[in-house]
Amino acid sequence: MRHLIPLGDPVTNENDKQQQLDRYRVEQGDRLTTDQGVRVEDTDNSLAVGDRGPTLLEDFHFREKVMRFDHERIPERVVHARGSGAYGFFQVHESLEEYTCADFLTDPSLRTPVFVRFSTVAGSRGSADTVRDVRGFATKFYTREGNYDLVGNNIPVFFIQDAVKFPDFVHAVKPEPHNEIPQAQSAHDTFWDFVQLQPETMHMVMWLMSDRALPRSFRMMQGFGVHTFRFVNAEGRGTFVKFHWKPVLGTHSLVWDEVLRIQGNDPDFNRRDLWEAIERGDHPEYELGVQLVPESEEHSFDFDLLDPTKIIPEEDVPVRPIGRLTLDRNPDNFFAETEQIAFCTGNVVPGIDFTNDPLLQGRNFSYLDTQLLRLGGPNFMQIPINRPVAPVHNDQRDGFHQDAIHQSRTSYTKNSISEGCPMSGVLSGRMEGVFRHYTERVEGEKIRRRSPSFEDHYSQAALFWNSMSDWEKRHITEAFLFELGHVERRYIKENVVGHLAHVDGDLAAEVARGLGLPEPQAVRTDHGKASPALSQANAPRESIATRKIAILVADDTDADQVAAVRRELQARGAVCETLASHEGTVGPLDVDRRLGAAASVLYDAVLLAAGDELTGDGHAVHFVREAFKHGKAIGALGAGRALLEAAALPDRQGVVGPDDEGFTQRFADAVAVHRHYDREVAGFSA
Ligand code: HDD
């Protein structure tokens, strides 16, 4: 049975989003009924004339059941169709009232409930998680002053500068129209055709070709608001702001070959990882940071703050941590919550406002518009996941799926019959909690033209490239070779390489060589600048918290030794699984998975504790060699020495043997490094 809360009911603290949702939860119940509450006698046989006769149209249970089934799917999101979500809360460290009057950013005692949805962009709802793609990072804050949506990505810039290009861009990256190939991939002609004709894509394309597009986990990726937004304080003073989410676990990626193999082994890899971490109590955490720019400094950069293809280098304007997001609860029902959540960049609260970034301005129209189709009409904000905890009072009425039974005799303002209610949001002249648009002077001619201040498409692409470590540069180069290798039209490849020549001559030359194209003339944007904060090589690598370690065991395993090492790794936060040639037990050890049903790509590191029994097992030896190929830490204990030898690894970087002193510490250090990329140089390329 469904219970509705009247739309006007105020809900004012973090637990109340929970209570609000609780009122919509439906128990399974013990008696089958129709949607009208009529008990059903039999749901296995439709009503028919006699034993072999035709089905009767009057079988209202059959018709209702099949009608509901026929309509189970709603249109998937046109982009970001594949996603996973979680509940949590946000808490600001200290009041930001100097810059913003947003209630949830000024009261450190307040825990604001949130729902976050992570997503890929290009693939359809059933596509694999680990594809080369941008990841969405969308957060709905249920604040006391209304819902605030920060709809960002894990890459701080965007492909295009003006929202009117978005349909073109998405049509280009989606499967090609004649044969609907390829799914969830940018490695095809139409995407690269768009790139070659639209050089504003170049900065974002550099990020897309980097390991940022292959996150190890949603819990280990950054998020960005992308646009420059505006904070507004109680006096009405504005400050430009860029938003950054930084994962407490650090920013880590998979390697390309691994990504390809995970797609078959576990297409739900990122989704499962998020779900399982929250179920285990390993709650993902992110610091929210801001870069603040006073209005007086709007024009002090060598790019336009309104251009969404540009970052503000952290070295120029530091990222100030302002609060923490914790995700601590999985949804109860994927469809009701994760699928039906509706984000809209236009959902802002007092203290946060827009800028004239033309991409942001256009987004504000698109998100509201798309929900009308996807969620079936204008009342989608009444779906439990979308309801604000702040009270809602207005005269908007009726339409498809109206849930509220409005009691008022009037639905217009001004009125005298309902004592004038609802009146303006301003109570007795007090402006607190009232959204007032930032007062900005605007003048100019009505034109359809890109601002000349948006013209530079290469400087920051070069900044990104210059900031990369050697292994990151290698991966980017290989990514270009892979992607362009799937392009059929030679002139498209040539033109992309032509753009790369503006970014870096060596990069362009190497890609040209690999593709058998003439070497382009280097026209590098040679500013020589770098931003170390952009490199993942500079991310801290001390913790092994939540890293997944496979422990290979057999009858010759020293169970006590393994148990002791496992305890210590788990005490440091690692997640260990025991793998053997069969399920059940091996001696006193419980087996978590049969080796033959697992793959090394599902783990971050491997601990070999089995010897002779597995040295002749091709799958076990492949498991070790593949983990090594993907740069993972490998440890060998006791009998594991034999398996390590059987794997005949060509290099010892990140490999800890049974004779190494302080085994567990060294192995943990090797796991914390995440990936030993230098092995690639040693001839075992990932
Ligand atoms: Fe968008 C979904 C992020 C540009 C139009 N977008 C969507 C989602 C994210 C982003 C994370 C998924 C939200 C969820 O989980 O439900 N989009 C971005 C970012 C952009 C961006 C960071 C550039 C800075 N988007 C953008 C433009 C347009 C759209 C320029 C249209 C002109 N985006 C949409 C959409 C979607 C969407 C069609 C699909 C489903 C939805 O909105 O709810 O309206």
TrEMBL record:
Gene Ontology cellular component annotations, sorted alphabetically: cytosol
Annotated residues for binding of heme: R77, R117, F166, R363, Y367, R374
Alphabetically ordered keywords of this record: Heme, Hydrogen peroxide, Iron, Metal-binding, Oxidoreductase, Peroxidase
Catalytic residues (positions): H80, N153
Domain Catalase core residues, every copy: 33-421
Main enzyme class: oxidoreductase
Catalytic activity: 2 H2O2 = O2 + 2 H2O
A Pfam family assignment: Catalase
Record EC number: 1.11.1.6
Protein known as: Catalase
Family named by the database record: Belongs to the catalase family. HPII subfamily.
Function: Decomposes hydrogen peroxide into water and oxygen; serves to protect cells from the toxic effects of hydrogen peroxide.
Cofactor(s) required for function per UniProt: heme
Domain of life: Bacteria
Any GO BP: hydrogen peroxide catabolic process
Molecular function per GO: catalase activity; heme binding; metal ion binding
